[in-house]
Design goal:
mainly alpha
Length: 101
């Protein structure tokens, strides 16, 4: 799951748990209703100030919003491909070549 999708899911869950509508969250947090809707729809991401405003309005710590988002993004990630991890490109030091114009 991508970060924006994960954050939108976390935000919606915390808002519903707090018993707030999007309009009520907008009023309490001081953020615009359209911005709340765009964040919950995965179309916008919060600034640091917005994250703190959301946390205050939802009566939680800002890090809980981030940690819950991180948990959703890392639990679904695939392991890196081993063949790509071993590939090393060697570059020989030297003078740049002249090119004809």
């Amino acid at each position: 799951m991508k970060v924006l999708e994960a954050f939108s899911s976390v935000l919606r869950k915390k808002r519903v748990t707090a018993g707030l509508t999007q309009a009520e969250l907008a009023v309490v947090s001081g953020l615009h209703l359209n911005f709340i809707g765009r964040m919950e729809g995965g179309k916008a991401q919060p600034t640091l100030e917005s994250l703190f405003a959301l946390a205050r309005a939802l009566d939680c710590f800002p890090q809980s919003l981030v940690e819950d988002t991180l948990e959703l993004t890392t639990s679904k990630r695939r392991a890196p491909r081993p063949d790509l991890a071993k590939k090393v490109v060697k570059v020989r030091p030297g003078r740049p070549k002249k090119t004809d114009v």
